[in-house]
Amino acid sequence: MESGLFGLTETQVAEFGLTWGVGGFIAFMLFIIWKLARESRAGRFGTFILFFVLAFGILGFIAKQVIQWLIGIE
Amino acid sequence: MDDRVPASTADAQPAVREIALAQPLAWLRQGWRDMHGCFGASLLHGVLVAVGGLLILTLTLRAWMLMPGALSGFLLIGPILCTGLYELSRRCASGERPRFAHAIGAWRRGTRPLVALGVLLFAAATAWVLVSALLFELFVPVPLDSPLRFLRYAVAGQGGWLFFLWLLAGGLGAALVFSLTVVSAPLLLDREVTLRTALLASVRAVGDNPAPMALWAVLIMLATAASMATLMIGFVFAVPVIGHATWHAYRDVLDVERLPRR
């Protein structure tokens, strides 16, 4: 029997936290980005955020491949 | 926000210039030249950041959950760590011979909005360390008791999705911090403006030049990744070049002639 919190199992708490907690955190950051773009009247701020997150993701993916290769995992 | 700045000054907004896509490469060249112009004082900044990074790496060796957040959070306060470098470049540009005392002077001047920016970045870095640690603590069902197990779980197998979620959240946070600080720290050091004016000017500079600023961000990311891959040693040169280059980015992107000097 798994230990529970408010009648929920550990797996349920983790799933709830991942979908709503992290989702909410990301949504909050998107709200700040939208608010900043409006207040600063910066025309293509959204375009920059897209470029940045894409570049960050690509670099992270390359880092993942290099680390996997270094420690010898598929 | 600093209320001591007179209303007329506080209202003044720096104008944003549109720049060419390749301009960040020119900033790097100018940063390299400035580093040679004040070699000892510049390099000392790099050495301090490298030692700080190594210290964090050593301290978090026993607490794996904290390491990804602590290392990336440490980088978030980079714009403030480079304050001395902006002052050295400013002295170079005005024809003075920059000395280490000038860099110390910039820190001691410690103007209120600049300190407030430091506190803001420190708070963001701390929040990121906590969120990052929480992500790994909550969603990793296996004990991560060695560096290898941590890497195996975080970047491969069943932990792969967690790595990408961490990347997405980290990417959004880093994009926000980059936009808010890309030119605001040198602006606060150079001109009499409020923190709010400096932050919004920085966001506007990014929004009006999305492609060159994205290239600038990629160059900083590559320099950071290379520095981390060399166990922080790369920071000894990367920090001075990027710090000085940030001053030139600020001078290129913002027209601050109407604003009073600090």
Which features would summarize this protein structure in a list?
A: 74 residues, mainly alpha, 5% strand, B: 14 helices, 2 strands, disordered N terminus
Care to give the gist of this entry?
The complex is a heterodimer of chains A (74) and B (262). With 74 residues, chain A is mainly α. Helices cover 78% and strands 5% of the residues of chain A.
Shape of chain B, please?
globular
Distance between the termini of chain B: 16 Å
Structural class of chain B: mainly alpha
Helices of chain B, by number, come to 14
Estimated share of beta-strand residues of chain A: 5-15%
Poorly predicted sequence stretches spanning 5 or more consecutive residues of chain B: 1-5
Largest interface: A-B, 39 and 44 residues
User: In one word, what is the shape of chain A?
Assistant: flat
Report on the architecture of this protein.
The complex is a heterodimer of chains A (74) and B (262). The longest helix of chain A has 31 residues. Chain A is flat. Helix content of chain A is 78%, strand content 5%. Chain A is mainly alpha-helical and 74 residues long. Chain A folds into two domains: 42 residues; 32 residues. Chain A has two helices and two strands; from the N terminus they run E-E-H-H. A two-stranded antiparallel ribbon of chain A has the order 1-2. By secondary structure, chain B is mostly helical. Chain B has one domain. Chain B has a two-stranded antiparallel sheet. In chain B, helix 4 packs antiparallel against helix 8 and helix 6 packs across helix 11. The radius of gyration of chain B is 19 Å and the shape is globular. Chain B starts with 6 loop residues before the first helix and ends in a 7-residue tail after the last strand. At the A-B interface, helix 1 and helix 2 of A face helix 8, helix 9, helix 10, helix 12 and helix 13 of B.
